[in-house]
């Protein structure tokens, strides 16, 4: 406004174009599931010390018929705002459990859950059904949540998490360290794993002091007797530092980018069977 009317005129068409583009994307998202435009990719998680495979994180991919690959960073928020995350999230969980049921017994599958899914009272039943339909034992399923799930300190959400954990499912805190009060959320629920946010790992190369922060987070995991996974490990230097810091698991492009289901079986042969045979 302080820029005068001319500026307002200048921005207006641009904004409405963006709103229009967003509406179109939302309409496309509404039919993406039925049109078979989604697929799952799986990224390995390995032991930090030995690089032996422990499991895979499931990540959703959308191939838009005209625009090609759309980033989850763009469409997941849209799916959350529209409630579409409920059917999409169920599709992801079912697909992930089906795939993981074909993997050797100790290999786990991790699935990201949105805060919106915790607003749905039938979340626990949905998870139980996905396990039953696939035959995957609960101890091989990991659910990743961010602190956004716990933001409202909502008793119903905490109760659901306890129910899931009582079934033998593991609960991980994703993107640890970048929220407002990650430490306080650790008190509200007994997590099985802390996933140290990728930004801390990326910084390791730029500033060696950042290793002190990663070490503190790994020490926290050790004290709580839970796993600490370093996310986004891209270089051998980063791997050496997170190892020295005491992280128990790593995930990142250095080991492998997320891959389609068929490639997950190859990764199991390379990163698990070979290691076990050795
Ligand atoms: P996230 O759960 O923290 O997933 C890790 C993200 O880091 C993934 O991005 C992965 O591809 C990326 N990544 C892994 N290793 C590296 C690395 O070495 N370097 C770099 N630069 N990136 C790496 P992606 O697949 O784009 O997913 C972004 C976010 O979207 C996820 O973050 C998660 O919050 C959300 N998301 C993805 N799939 C789902 C889903 O099925 N459900 C829900 N609710 N959210 C999902
Ligand atoms: Mg995750
Ligand atoms: Mg993460
Ligand atoms: Mg994230």
Automatic annotation (TrEMBL):
<protein>
    <submittedName>
        <fullName>EAL domain-containing protein</fullName>
    </submittedName>
</protein>
<feature type="domain" description="EAL">
    <location>
        <begin position="22"/>
        <end position="272"/>
    </location>
</feature>
């Amino acid at each position: 406004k302080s820029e005068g009317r001319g500026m307002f005129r200048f921005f207006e068409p641009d904004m409405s174009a963006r709103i229009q583009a967003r509406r179109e994307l939302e309409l496309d998202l509404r039919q993406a599931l039925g049109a078979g435009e989604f697929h799952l990719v799986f990224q390995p998680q390995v032991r930090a010390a030995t690089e032996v495979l422990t499991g895979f994180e499931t990540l959703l991919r959308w191939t838009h018929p005209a625009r090609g690959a759309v980033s989850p960073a763009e469409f997941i928020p849209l799916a959350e705002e529209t409630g579409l995350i409920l059917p999409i999230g169920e599709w992801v969980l079912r697909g992930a459990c089906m795939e993981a049921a074909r993997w050797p017994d100790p290999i786990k599958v991790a699935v990201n859950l949105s805060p919106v899914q915790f607003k749905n009272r039938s979340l626990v039943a949905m998870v139980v059904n996905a396990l039953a339909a696939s035959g995957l034992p609960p101890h091989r399923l990991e659910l990743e949540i961010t602190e956004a799930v716990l933001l409202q300190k909502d008793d119903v959400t905490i109760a659901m998490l306890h129910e899931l954990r009582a079934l033998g499912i593991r609960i991980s805190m994703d993107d640890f360290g970048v929220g407002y009060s990650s430490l306080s959320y650790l008190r509200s629920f007994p997590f099985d794993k802390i996933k140290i946010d990728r930004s801390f790992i990326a910084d390791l190369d730029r500033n060696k002091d950042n290793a002190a922060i990663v070490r503190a987070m790994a020490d926290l995991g050790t004290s709580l007797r839970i796993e600490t996974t370093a996310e986004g490990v891209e270089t051998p230097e980063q791997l050496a530092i997170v190892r020295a810091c005491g992280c128990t698991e790593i995930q990142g492009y250095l080991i492998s980018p997320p891959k389609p289901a068929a490639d997950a079986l190859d990764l199991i042969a390379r990163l698990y069977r070979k290691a076990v045979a050795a």
